[in-house]
Amino acid sequence: MTNLFVLQLLNGLQLGVLLFLIAAGLTLVFGIMDVINLAHGVLYMVGAYLIATFAAATGSFWWGLLLMLPAAVAVGLALEWVVMRRLYARSHLDQVLATFGLVMMANEVVKIVWGVSPLSVPLPGILSGSVPLMGPLQYPVYRIAIIVAGLAVALGLFLMVNYTRIGMLLRAGATNRDMVSALGVDIGRLFAVVFTLGAVLACLAGALVAPILSVDTGMGESVLILTFVVVVIGGIGSIKGAFLGAILVAVVDTLGGVFGPILLRQVLDPAAAGQAGRTLAPMLVYILMAVILFARPAGLFGRRG
Amino acid sequence: MAEAAIPAPARRPVLAGRVKAALVLFGLFAALPPVAAAAGDPFLVLIATRILAYAIAAMALDLILGFGAMVSFGHAAYLGFGAYAVAILASFGITDIFVQIACAAGVSALFALVTGAISLRTRGVYFIMITLAFGQMAFFFFISLSAYGGDDGVGLRSRSTLFGTDLLENDVTLFYVTLAVLAALFLACHRIVGSRFGRVLTGIRENPVRMEAIGFTPFRYQLTAFVISGMMTSVAGVMLANQAEFVSPAFMSWHRSGELIVMVVLGGIGTLAGAIGGAVAALVLEEALGMMTEHWPFWFGLFLVLMVLFSPRGITGFVEKLGRRRP
């Protein structure tokens, strides 16, 4: 039981770290530009497809990762330049429609370019295998590597946001966009930087997860909604909120799926517990969101309601 | 005071024009089955029934999106409640369409009341994301409902019964019943929008602070509209399940919610009759593109992006501009 708990906790942590990478960009884009971007999940998918392509071409996961990053920057810049830039001043409804259109387009482009069958990315040799944790418990090295990499990025973001000039502008922009602009900051350039940063982080999350998931067209969408939940729980515009929200959502989602039915079995007969558990588990994160929003409509660390 | 402040008579001609537009649409629809029969294409009636069902949903969404400025991105959930009400009640032998509609509307009202009360504590981007998340919650609930097919959905053994008869088994009858439901709900929406309640709702859309200052509680009006809209959308779900004779969680995916918004906007938000036209336009465009290429979502998406980017005030402005050009 303890072993299972530790194992699932680690799985939850790994999912949480990935969710954070995606949510960080999303929360900044929402918070600073007040733009809703449904196409953010697409970037996660694109990251996975890019690394699948580059890794297959070079025969190495590491080269794939290295080549993926500049490609992700290019994708982010292009998307900002061609579409997003024109949406900043628009109503939320227009933003929803345009980015919804982008999602439809991107899914089809991926189908046309890469086909409909899922791709797989080989695990990098040095990170394959498992390490013993405690007792008979083994845990895959690669998942630990994801956790470490994600935490490192989180730390880097934290330092950047709190101790650099661009970070200062980000925080200022999230608090009062108009004031930052009035003080002579080129808000257009700041937006481009923020959007591209978010895009690269989402692509990175997709690239990191590619070796342990099958890479297919639907992968961005389930993650997108979970990321929305994370951003809403954490409070729009807050990196700290995104981090805590991501870990919270992922751990609840992972542990709820495994331990929900086990706990229910204490009070219900096994068949009913199994069905109820399977039904309730995927709803847990949304119930969590509802409870948190009921108490704090602006999320855990949000300022605006 | 609030009543007197709004020059009601000045609005009459616009509303009358929209009712006329809706009547023309209904008339065209009513003429469709004989035409389809003459053309030897009975499938046309089934496709048109689907369009009518979506028109109900789009109109219900327009009630809150257009008149209340609430961008609900989870409205497909109510389509699902309606559809599953048919499937689940039928499995218990209850096939009467009125009972099914009542159950669907009841469940939807409850869901809308709870999720609406939470969502309406926020606005803007938050509101969109939260309604989307709640829609997804309902989606996952039905995916995990293995007794009713889970992910794969479940086929209906037969359509709903009308006054204890199996009249709805006939595609043409189903079509006319759906059309009648649409017309009735249009009338209801029209009355709601024109009522004091509707005008308060529109006032809140324009300026919630001012409405609060003159003594209205925006939350109460918005939540009521949200619940009404959810209940109406579930009726669309009941009709849709009967049309497809099949129910699956795909009815409630977030893409469906997005499509409903597209329909409302295509037809011009806040026009009711426009939402019906938008549903027709969006679904016909989908069918037409689908016939030309299997990659139709790409072109549909491109159409959406271009519409937003190349009209100065978004799609809404574009449609308004078109409307103004017409004599």
UniProtKB/TrEMBL annotation, chain A:
Q: Which GO terms describe its cellular component?
A: plasma membrane
Tell where it localizes. Answer: Cell membrane
Question: What transmembrane ranges does the database entry give?
Answer: 12-31, 38-56, 62-84, 141-161, 190-213, 219-236, 243-263, 283-302
How does this chain sit within the bilayer?
Multi-pass membrane protein
**Does the entry feature the keyword Zinc, yes or no?**
no
Q: Which Pfam families match?
A: BPD_transp_2 (PF02653)
Q: Which GO terms describe its biological process?
A: amino acid transport
Q: What CDD domains would the database entry show?
A: TM_PBP1_LivH_like
What keywords is this UniProt entry annotated with?
A: Amino-acid transport, Cell membrane, Membrane, Transmembrane, Transmembrane helix, Transport
**Which InterPro entries does UniProt cross-reference here?**
ABC_transp_permease, BCAA_transport_permease
The lineage's top-level taxon is: Bacteria
GO molecular function term, any single one: transmembrane transporter activity
Family stated for the protein in its record: Belongs to the binding-protein-dependent transport system permease family. LivHM subfamily.
PANTHER family assigned: ABC TRANSPORTER ATP-BINDING PROTEIN, BRANCHED-CHAIN AMINO ACID TRANSPORT SYSTEM PERMEASE PROTEIN LIVH
Q: What is this protein called?
A: ABC transporter permease
Q: Which organism encodes this protein?
A: Roseivivax isoporae LMG 25204
UniProtKB/TrEMBL annotation, chain B:
Q: Membrane-spanning regions, if any? A: 47-69, 76-92, 98-118, 125-148, 173-193, 219-240, 260-284, 296-315
Coiled coil region boundaries: none
Name the keywords, alphabetized: Cell membrane, Membrane, Transmembrane, Transmembrane helix
**Could you confirm whether the keyword Transmembrane helix appears in this record?**
yes
The way it spans or sits in the membrane comes to: Multi-pass membrane protein
Task: Please name the GO terms that the record assigns under molecular function.
Answer: branched-chain amino acid transmembrane transporter activity
Supply the InterPro entries for this chain: ABC_transp_permease, LivM-like
Name a single GO cellular component.
Answer: plasma membrane
Localized where? Cell membrane
Q: Which Pfam families has this protein been placed in?
A: BPD_transp_2
What protein name does the entry list? ABC transporter permease
